[in-house]
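Notebook entry, structure prediction.
Reason for the run: the old model in the group folder had no record of what sequence produced it. Starting over properly, with the input documented here first.
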Amino acid sequence: MILVLLSPRNAGLPFAEWLREQSGRLLAVTVEGVALGPGFLDVERVADYTDDAAVLAAARRMADRHGVTRVLALAEVDVERAAALRAEFGLPGQLPASARAYRDKVLMKELAATGGVPVPPFAAVASAADVAAFMAANPGPIVVKPRGGSGSTGVAVLHDPAQIAEVADRVTDGDHEVEGYVTGRMCHVDALHVGGEPVVCVPSVYTDGGCLSHWTDSGNGSWTLPTVDPLYERLVTETWRLVGALPAAPALFVHAEFFVTDAGEIVLCEIAGRVGGTPIPAMLEAVLGLDPRHLWARIECGLPVELDAVRAHAAAAPLVANFGLPPRDGRIVRLPARAPAGARNFTVLARLGEDWGGARYAGRKSGDFIATWLVTADDAEELLALVDKTGAEAEAGFGWEPSPAPEARSEGAAR
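New structure, fully documented this time:
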């Protein structure tokens, strides 16, 4: 039986359809309050899905009741958990040494540099003094981030040593890194590697601001590079070099991010051993012919996949861009009445009256969107013009008002 580590964000995915041979025999570990779709035989729920010990204990209880043959994880938070369980249960798939390298941003850069992949200056930090020492040795802006974070959560860009106080409390556990700030275009590459062989590699360029655009309430997305662009083959080469530098696994679906400097150098930002977050899966589905999470779930679970069909579809696909609007600091009072002209897969992810203010706004991730969509075109100029046009139309369709004051929220709840 297949054990699915089911992050709340992935609870609505059609696992019974994707893993049809195992429908009715799937097992899940998820959080309390999550309703499972069809296809699951048994479920263990935990109170807090961020609690590694609780999730692993629930998985062991499940394994005691059933014969687990595979462990499937789609979320970043589950990559190392799934690897630990495979090692413990003697199951195939990515194991801890590989999973850790794709999660720990210090370790991955050490391995990447040894493998010949350019990386920015970086260091592990465990105190404000460590950050100060790094800034003294590396003039210019720096970036402080969690070693195992995702979605740009907890990332801080510091321009002056006086700003170190803003991150002093969070770096004391030794689970953060600091690196030099790299200017230039930001790209991502989504790639599938099976049985030691590359299957498909899709280089893309983020729109202006990239995954930090939500800091300024700006929409963001990415678009697939034409194969004739000189950067295309360079990004493909660097991605496979990076995969070769990190510990191997029987199969990998990776989401790598690179900076391309003004001088044309490709520098690693980071790489994750999973499918990219929303709205990248929809864009990749247009390229690959099926949802990449569907593709990866079948491969990870040892079920048959027509890899040649995936290759052929990717070779013939048009240029595709994804785009999403981030939430504002307030409450939604109007939703778009229709999809922007030219938009495909337009999905409103917010509700009328939904409140994104206060702590929720402060803790927003780069993958938190109120609407997402795709556009396609035959050339890059047409594609990017369509991104701008649909973005303006979608933004105009939403209405916002300030969130109620905290005391007003409390009074409303009391009534």
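Summary: The radius of gyration is 22 Å.
The old model has been moved to the deprecated folder.
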